[in-house]
């Protein structure tokens, strides 16, 4: 029987990432209809297919589109000045005393209007897209009052209208204690639960709710209150946990069936076991580890032993990871955390999709999934992880159409 479809892609090896492994199909064929993959396999095994458009690559590999599953891409200003001050000898305390640190980004974000936030975020989004990113998660969390958080979330939603990329929006109202609530984080959490989250749900401005569980931010009790409110509104949760100390936030996240727990340098075996039982993804962020010159590695061997899927993300943010390349994070995950290149690639495809709840539609080359994929003129996928920085040529297909 003849299969009719919109486009057929030939002449490259398919790196499918099915089950999080390379699963390479040599000399593959991939057929797309209505933005979905309708057939893939070896060209030699292809049934009769009639396609409106046929593309022959003449070599190279095709991977799933890359997924950056943890970013803070939308913010006002930047902190390059503080970066320079620190390297000139200023301490964190000096910088904080001058109104620096995260609160300087909060001030700049509150002062910026919708269009200027959109404009500056687009400038950071473009380099990520140019290296094959087809899905990106972006968090709020620099507004820290109801109006400014809603403004950030609307900018995140607007980005998806500006560029051919799938944008997942996360409300991170519990990122830092707002200056107006210093010494009374409970009151901000109540405000977030009673005013912000209902407004977010009403306007469909977020796909998930996140928090920063740490001594210098919010306690497990605050997170529990916020997560309970989020789930009552039907919003899934995720958590910044165990970055600087062990508070068992990741175990708490697992109790709420969190999509992911992120950072995890100080996660214990008890946390890892709870995450495994709940299906919570470990999102590891080598850019922040690198910039903060951390020495405590996340427990990669424990995640492997318990079968916790590991994702990698840029964590693009103005303070601890001003990263504009997801591919550089692949190399860092291997060099700093001892990932294998295959694990790293799974960490920005299938497991990153799972961290966003998109594992049934994104993250691997499989029939029925969205046709987001990238052609690279490379012989082997390990090269994506091996080259340090720079720009590799690639052709990105988003929802079946060349971008
Ligand atoms: Zn983050």
From TrEMBL:
State if Membrane is listed as a keyword. Answer: no
A molecular function (GO) term = imidazolonepropionase activity
Question: Which organism encodes this protein?
Answer: Musicola paradisiaca (strain Ech703)
Coiled-coil stretches, from where to where? none
Q: How is the cofactor bound?
A: Binds 1 zinc or iron ion per subunit.
Q: Which CDD domains match?
A: Imidazolone-5PH
Q: Which gene carries the instructions for this protein? A: hutI
Location relative to the cell: Cytoplasm
User: Which family does the entry's similarity section mention?
Assistant: Belongs to the metallo-dependent hydrolases superfamily. HutI family.
Q: What is this protein called?
A: Imidazolonepropionase
Primary role: Catalyzes the hydrolytic cleavage of the carbon-nitrogen bond in imidazolone-5-propanoate to yield N-formimidoyl-L-glutamate. It is the third step in the universal histidine degradation pathway.
| Any matching Pfam family | Amidohydro_1
Q: Where does N-formimidoyl-L-glutamate bind?
A: 142, 317, 319
Q: Does the record carry Signal as a key word? A: no
